[in-house]
Amino acid sequence: MLLLLMLAACVQAPSFMRPASEPAHRIAVLGWWLIAIATIVFVVVMVLLLVPLMHRRQEIAHADVHGGGGERMILIGGALIPAIILIAVFLFSLPTLSATITPSSRPRYTIEVSGHQWWWEVTYHTADPSFRVTTANEIHIPVGEDIGVRVNSRDVAHSFWVPELQGKIDLIPGQTNTFWLRADKPGIYRGQCAEYCGMQHAHMGVVVVAQSAAQYADWLRGQEAPVTAPRTTDDSLGAQAFQRGACSLCHTIRGTDAHGVLGPDLTHVGSRLTLAAGMIPNTRGHLQGWIANAQGVKPGVAMPTLYLDATSLQALAAYLESLR
Q1: Alpha-carbon gap, residue 274 to 282, rounded angstroms
Q2: 242-248 contacts: CB < 8 A, separation 24 or more?
Q3: Considering the entire predicted model, what is its pTM?
């Protein structure tokens, strides 16, 4: 059993102990200091409790019970010293909190992240103020850049957290909060909703892709473009199934007649790394499974079960996969 627990700890889950940005590094250093302070306090308390018990257990067992005395020690050890430690820890944390809240320079790029049950809507502002790029559950940022982020919730409270890049930020219905992201090295960083928001809270993940400035510009340029006309017979059949079925009522695909706003924008869904807010990889098989029975994959999600025949299902998956 102990071996199984140790193996579970080896899973490469997001952790503040592997910082990939300057603010995350500050948080990690602070975290290690807090762990060290907590460990010292724990050891001291255990020593103060166990040493007298080990050396005087016989005397304690036969001592007469009497009241009075000890109030001063209780006041000092139980109130004064803990208060001093907590105040010192608070003051020690302030420089880190200040440095992680405010970026060193004004961000050139700003994105908006909206929390839904249970997925993330991500909107990029482009050079044209009247035009925005909207995607879902995946954020692309250039390496070495401070990225401004505005967050809000469309339903219940959420909390956005990418441990290797930044601290947590709460998403409150009816309120817009701001913070910033930065990645100092390329990579794929996983984030998670850190505030319980319903039965699929644990499956509300987000992926942050940090890439070079040139790669980011190419990616954003590709996302700005509307989809092209279907090129194969399967893609054409899939596009027809999408438009004629329930899909277009909830989803948008720019360049088509689908303008739904209840679900994620699917304009370039084929280029994304995952499906269902990070639950499953974006492959043809997983895509077909998600379309056919989303409730079986993620119970409680807003997407209904679609009763499609095999031909329509395969064609629809092929069409969505082609949207890159």
Answers
A1: 5
A2: 242/316, 242/319, 242/320, 245/306, 245/308, 245/316, 246/304, 246/306, 247/306, 247/316
A3: 0.84
Task: Give the whole-angstrom CA distance, residue 124 versus residue 135.
Answer: 8
Q: pLDDT by residue (tens digit) across 185-196?
A: 999 999 999 999
CATH number assigned to the domain with residue range 109-224, chosen from the 4 options 3.40.50.2020, 3.40.1280.10, 3.40.309.10, 2.60.40.420: 2.60.40.420
CB atoms within 10 A of CB 202: 12
Concatenated DSSP letters of 183-227: -SS-EEEEEEE-S--STTGGG-EEEEEEE-HHHHHHHHHHHHSPP
User: Domain map of the chain by residue range?
Assistant: 109-224, 233-321
CA distance 213 to 210: 9
Q: How far is CA 37 from CA 20, 48, 86, in A?
A: 24, 17, 10
- Between CA 306 and CA 201 the distance in angstroms is 23
267: Cβ–Cβ under 8 A, 6 or more apart, which residues? Answer: 134, 135, 223, 226, 227, 252, 253, 254, 255, 323
Assign a CATH topology to domain 233-321.
Immunoglobulin-like (2.60.40)
- Interhelix angle 22-62/81-101, rounded to 10 degrees, is 170
Give me 36's structure tokens.
């060290």
Bridge-based pairing of strands 147-153 and 109-116 is parallel
The contacts of residue 235 (CB under 8 Å, 6+ apart) are 315, 318, 319, 322
pLDDT digits (tens, 9 = 90+) for 204-258: 999 999 999 999 999 998 998 888 888 888 888 888 888 888 888 899 999 888 8
